[in-house]
Amino acid sequence: MLLLLRPLAWVNTQILRLGRHLAWMALALMVVVILTQVFFRYVLNNALAWPDEAARFLMLWMTGLMAPSAMRWSGFVAIDMLPAALPRRAGLALTLVLLCLSLMVLTVAIGHGWAHTFGFGGKFDSSSLRLPFDWIGMEAVKVKLKYMYGALLMCVCLLSVVTFELILRALARLIDPDVDLPGDDAPVDLQGGAE
């Protein structure tokens, strides 16, 4: 099991680290876009059409890139009183069951996300976002909505891989509570309850 967990943890660490860097860049760009809209709307009294949709686009990508790290670091809101109150092995078993249920839901979400991103919903153009190739003498190109929806598909795919890693971690701890698990650049808490 550790032979699978170690490379998976290393790959997740690298991908999630890159995702966090891209997410803070998306957040910074989103702030610039929103401030641009505020300036044009309230100072120049001439609101632009594209900043609201661009900010939504960046927010979806920022969320999609950060959610897997939050999942891996136990950063989501959770009710953990029951696993903490149970004996260690029972708490780990409950955690394992909940992670398996999460993986099942995420697998269904991947199917829906794929169908929506590359199916009917992804064929539409954004109402206001376009690549301004007309500035260099070419024709402007409207941005397809599949690039916005792709953030959510990528998010559930990464969440699935992270959940699979957490399942392996919980299994390893269930088999051997003192096992030396691979580290990460932030703590992963799967201790699973009281001693």
Label the structural class. mainly alpha
Number of domains: 1
- The value of Rg in angstroms is 21 Å
Number of strands: 2
What string, H for helix and E for strand, traces the elements in order? HHHHEEH
Number of helical regions: 5
Estimate the global geometry from the Cα principal axes: elongated
Uncertain stretches? 190-195
Q: State the end-to-end distance.
A: 24 Å
Across the major sheet, the strand order is 1-2
Q: How much helix, percentage-wise, in residues? A: 55-70%
Query: What does the average pLDDT come to?
Result: 86
Largest sheet properties:
2 strands, antiparallel
- Strand proportion, as a percent range, falls in 5-15%
Structure characterization notes:
The protein has 195 residues and is mainly alpha-helical. It has one domain (2-175). The protein is 67% helix and 6% strand. It has five helices and two strands; from the N terminus they run ααααββα. The protein has a two-stranded antiparallel ribbon with strand order 1-2. α1 (2-43) packs antiparallel against α2 (51-72). The longest helix is centred in the first third of the chain and has 42 residues, at 2-43. The two termini are 24 Å apart. Mean pLDDT is 86; it is low at 190-195.
Lay out the secondary structure.
Layout: H1 2-43, H2 51-72, H3 81-85, H4 88-118, E1 125-131, E2 141-144, H5 146-175
Antiparallel strand pairs: 1-2
Helix pairs in contact: 1-2, 1-5, 2-5, 4-5
